[in-house]
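S.,

As promised, the S-adenosyl-L-homocysteine run. Input:
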Amino acid sequence: MSLTTVLLKPGEADRLVAGHPWLYSNSILRLTGPVADGDWVQVKDHRQRLLGTGFYNAKSRIAVRILDADRVEDDRAFLRARVQSAVDLRRRWMPGATSYRVVNSESDFLSGLIVDRYEDVLVVQISSLGMDRRKADIVAVLQELLQPRSILERSDMASRRFEGLPESEGLLAGEPVGAVPITLNGLRFQADLAGGHKTGLYLDQQVNYAAVGELARGAGEVLDCFSFLGGFALHCARAGARQVLGLDQSATAVTAAGEHARANGLAERARFEAANVFDWLKAATAVGPHERVIPRYDLIILDPPSFTRNRASVPDALRGYKEIHLRAMKLLRPGGMLATFCCSHHVGRDLFEEVILAAAYDTRQVFRRVASYTQSPDHPVIPAIAETEYLKGFAYERVR
Ligand code: SAH
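Predicted complex:
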């Protein structure tokens, strides 16, 4: 049976040729035949050159998600090969990791599918109708390749409605699971897979936890802002920092982080406080007329949530980033380190550093950059697909 062809308008092929998988509905000239949502289609430019095949969905503004250069005969074999190559990539770049993102959607050429591994439990997140239709194949492939104890679905993103899909959560295979003990770089955490952020916790910082932990070797006081489950804080405490304080506005996160500190024998060195970081920093840097702020921290970590939802919110976000940097800098000892992250796709690396420099200017401080960070390799960056790169970070040493 021949596939229905989606023909593009002239001038609409470039992004796809470069490797981006999204074909927007307004780029389509016409379809050569009938097609049901979720079916494979082939995409051709206006000169009839084949650009690839993918899943069609008339309900979505992303009408086709390209998945392969050629025609795919067997869905399950296709999914198996893609998931296997994603698994191989993690084994190569994160050989010691036992919890990591196995499949990261566009980054692994499986637009619409995310799979996280928490030791022997898998969490699946499906954001496209085409993938949703193949859920049974996805589960079968994951069981075959990874033999998990359980597979959970956490497709509870509101964005599913843009694909005409309701939110969907539940057990796809194995026995029910709640909190799963996991190990990151040799430290123990609990991932609350039923109710946690994203699909449990933030796996994209795994490599950076270890790198920032190294900065804390021999440090006195460390401040971890937006500490969530204590990832950065506990790596710093283990590296030997004398006293680590983690701040997060979520009381649940603070309680969990405290438990993680105890589970790792680090409760003496790491404590967590429920606080709004903006308010806390403001109070810590507030001074009377003839007083000065005492810079007491050897290392300050800033890893806030994304302050942007879209392009329009960028100016507000930049004000927020500048404010926390400015106040954190005032608390940083000369010779101290600042490790700072931005997970907003709309604020690029250069713009982020501009904000940091503006804060440094206002405090009259000068910094040496000692490291640049990106997302862990289980969240691969495909430069042709700009959306795949979102996490950026720097470490600086305060030289003046
Ligand atoms: N550093 C963490 C991830 C931080 S995610 C890690 O590596 O896992 C952002 C965290 O910031 C969330 O836990 C959220 O509860 C917290 N948060 C958001 N806004 C905040 C604010 N204004 N003050 C304090 N915490 C905040």
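Residues 219 and 241 are 5 Å apart (CA to CA). The mean pLDDT is 96.

- D.
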